[in-house]
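Quick one, tokens below. Sequence please?
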């Protein structure tokens, strides 16, 4: 997943199976979202990326607790919970979403 914090820490973090793999930070001005391209290559909407997207979730809360709850929910929904890190709070238990 990709977490975009456009208001707080001004960071972009990429996660794979619950582990942070890449972080970009230090933006001098607030980021704004004017559009979101999904499955496009290098911002060029005419070039498509080979693959698929199972779901897109947009929420205002980018806290660690919320991110982990969403990861756990999706991992259990798609049968991928075993790919979460051993210490992930939802590796063995499906979280209750909406609480």
């Amino acid at each position: 997943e990709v977490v975009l914090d456009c208001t707080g820490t001004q960071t972009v973090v990429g996660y794979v199976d619950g582990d942070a793999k890449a972080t970009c930070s230090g933006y001098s001005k607030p980021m704004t979202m004017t559009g979101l391209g999904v499955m496009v290559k290098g911002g060029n909407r005419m070039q498509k990326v080979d693959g698929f997207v199972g779901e897109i979730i947009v929420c205002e809360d980018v806290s660690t607790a919320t991110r982990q709850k969403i990861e756990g929910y999706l991992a259990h929904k798609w049968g991928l919970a075993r790919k979460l890190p051993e210490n992930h709070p939802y590796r063995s238990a499906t979280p209750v979403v909406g609480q």
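Residues 64-77 form the longest helix (14 residues). The beta strands are 2-5, 11-16, 19-24, 40-41, 44-48.
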